[in-house]
Write a structure and sequence with these properties.
Number of helices: 11
Helix content: 25-40%
Structural class: alpha/beta
Oligomer: single chain
Strand content: 25-35%
Distance between the termini: 32 Å
Length: 417
């Protein structure tokens, strides 16, 4: 079967991995050279702990407060855009306790399945992507967050993420003895792991090329040719590709491509930034989230430390903003006062657009309006975490096998109901 995958991030590459293994001819099309997308600059978490979707009660009100601060963790660029208005309205409707509760077990299963697949890959000779299972710390400074943390820990243990616990300031200091930390405690998620995204991506690309997967890079998909209810050709700015099946895994650009097929998926790009230091004294032992500031810290690959964050809802052609990076540095220093991170030149900062659905859940599965189209997008901040599982699920769908996990909640056309 000729399969065309649109998008060369972790979801597209992992789909190609499992589809090639199943004997299909695979072509990956991407408008870039796939060396700088969101799958490279993320925190590298493989995190069952992230069982709460982006759309949660209270996030809208908090977001409105943060919008007044140009360095804040969350910002929506005001602009006249029907797709942004549509997304925002549906996001607010989705931010309910009931929907958060319904998402917990499906997200847990998705992440645990993905974690097992990364473990399987890590045992193969062609892969060495610095996979470590050291858990994750969610460090907090305020009593308000501490109170909420107890609810999170209770829920995590209820859904089987055993080993999740509140740790005291003293216990936190014992886990991170090298640096002073301004905090009153943390949640420790023993279930989490992390990897070095750059190695993961480069090794996966190398493996796929060795297996004969075709890469059509720096090509932009501009249209589709349809026959009856199916795509017959994917048309780029350079040529056209015959397709028996198409996988749409183009991240923050997926909504525009879906519209060409008369499919509406509420989705916006949430820009994030990260700084990676090598051979720095500002290393932690464990990956961590600084809760009040929404900043992620990850020690990677032995000698690297990554600091990342912000959710900037903006158009994909808006220039990056150095004040967002300054905000990350200042937030880190609030928790780690000894960390003297220099503000880099903007060209030395990684930034990328996370594909954010209107309810914080991925779009994964077949579509009704196009019989041979599979969606694999909308993963927001857990694209790397869920990437291996996404690829396996895509392959199972195409092979007409029962998916390894229940994907009903991720149906791509759920907002049409």
């Amino acid at each position: 079967m000729e399969i065309v995958i649109i998008g060369g991030g972790i979801n597209g590459l992992s789909s190609a991995y499992f589809l090639q293994e199943a004997g299909h001819q695979v072509t990956i099309i991407d408008q870039t050279d796939i060396t700088t997308n969101c799958s490279y600059g993320n925190a590298g978490y493989v995190c069952p702990s992230h069982f709460v979707p982006l759309a949660t009660p209270g996030i809208v009100q908090q977001g409105l407060k943060w919008m007044l601060n140009s360095k804040s963790p969350f910002y929506i660029q005001p602009r006249l855009s029907w797709s942004l208005i549509d997304w925002g309205w549906k996001f607010m409707q989705s931010a309910t306790e009931e929907k958060v509760e319904a998402a917990a077990i499906p997200l847990r299963d998705y992440a645990l399945f993905s974690q097992q697949l990364y473990l399987d890959w890590a045992k193969l000779p062609q892969f060495n992507f610095s996979y470590e299972h050291k858990g994750l710390l969610e460090i907090f400074q305020t009593n308000e967050v501490a109170e909420h943390a107890h609810h999170t820990v209770k829920k995590a243990n209820e859904i089987g993420l055993t080993g999740t616990k509140i740790i005291s300031k003293a216990a936190l200091d014992a886990m991170e003895p090298a640096h002073q930390i301004n905090a009153i405690g943390a949640i420790y998620f023993a279930c989490d792991a992390h990897l070095y995204p750059k190695k993961m991506m480069e090794q996966l690309i190398s493996h796929l090329k060795n297996k004969g997967v075709r890469f059509a890079l720096k090509e932009t998909v501009i249209d589709f040719e349809k026959k009856h209810n199916a795509i017959s050709k994917v048309i780029t700015n350079k040529t056209a590709y015959n397709a028996d099946t198409v996988v749409l895994a183009s991240g923050a650009w997926s909504r525009e491509l879906a519209e060409k097929l008369d499919i509406n998926i509420p989705l916006v790009g949430g820009r994030g930034y990260s700084i990676t230091l090598e051979d720095t004294p500002y290393m932690t032992n464990h990956p961590a989230v600084l809760v009040e500031e929404r900043i992620a810290l990850t020690p990677m690959d032995g000698n690297k430390m990554r600091f990342g964050g912000t959710m900037e809802i903006t158009s994909t052609d808006t220039p990056p903003k150095i004040n967002r990076v300054q905000g990350i540095i200042e937030s880190v220093k609030k928790f780690f006062p000894e960390f003297e991170i220099p503000l880099p030149a903007i060209e030395d900062v990684w930034f990328g657009y996370r594909p954010c659905s209107a309810d914080g859940l991925p779009y994964v599965g077949r579509t009704k309006k196009c019989s041979n189209l599979i969606m694999a997008t909308g993963h927001a901040m857990v694209g790397m975490s869920l990437g291996a599982a996404t690829g396996k699920i895509v392959a199972e769908i195409i092979e007409e096998q029962k998916p390894s996990i229940d994907i009903a909640i991720y149906h791509p056309e759920r907002f049409d109901a």
